[in-house]
TrEMBL record:
Annotated region (Disordered), positions in chain: 1-30
Keywords tagged on the record: Hydrolase, Nuclease
GO cellular component: cytoplasm; nucleus
Protein name: 3'-5' exonuclease domain-containing protein
Biased composition (Polar residues): 1-11
UniProt-recorded Gene Ontology molecular function terms: 3'-5' exonuclease activity; nucleic acid binding
Keyword Nuclease tagged: yes
InterPro entries tied to this protein: 3'-5'_exonuclease_dom, 3-5_Exonuclease_domain, RNaseH-like_sf, RNaseH_sf
Amino acid sequence: MAEASWSNSPPSAKHHQGEASGKEPLVVDDDIPVPEQKQDYTVPLMVDIHLTKEKLDVVCTSNPDKADKRIHEIRRRLGGMLSRSIGVDVEYTREDEPLQKAAILQLCVEDLVLVYHITAATKWPKELRPLLQEKKLYTFVGFSIGGDKEKLKFSGLEINPDKYINMQRKWRVPNNGKKWQALAEFAASLIHPSYKEMKKKINKELDHKLWGDSPLPNNLIEYAAKDACVTYEARKKIEIVKEGLEYCQEAEDHWDDPYYWGY
């Protein structure tokens, strides 16, 4: 995603030689193989988060079956929740490509993360589009999502716009003074101070040109997973605080009512 505080342009990545450079979709439907140079791979990775013993269970893959398995796990996890939010992030192909597209799509629910490598894939996961177009069950949460929406469309994907919210417009870092807040300062203020350094663990100029390469190196998988995790965690914390304040006000309104308290 593009963030004004640490980059003047969206994150980008390098296509493989022979990969589609026109307006053709990078992956196709109906199990028809794409003739361009691709790579079927899967990298499972456990990623540490904000200086605790917690870890993200990450699957980075271009394989549709592996992606479908993780999507099924995400759906199953969401089934037991009252608030069914999915953290989303998108990384882009190189900005000097003829048409910059989505290279990576990241989805996060609690500790489960899918890093789906679009530019390395030959087939869409069967469960991906139905998940992204879900009309009632889920809310997708991203950060600075305008560019992400555009690049996903160029790659043949779209998240239901009625269920896709921008966390950058839902909460402000206190006393920040900036119109556009960076994800790192947003996360450091709302989730954990260690996130202030989250964007400094990769080379801005070089690593952001590698999102189209496969397989992704572990440091980029970790970076991508944390971006999606941050939006998920931010949404969860804001919802908890909002709900707590609403219950608090309701309790104040009924403080002297014994029937409200059940005695």
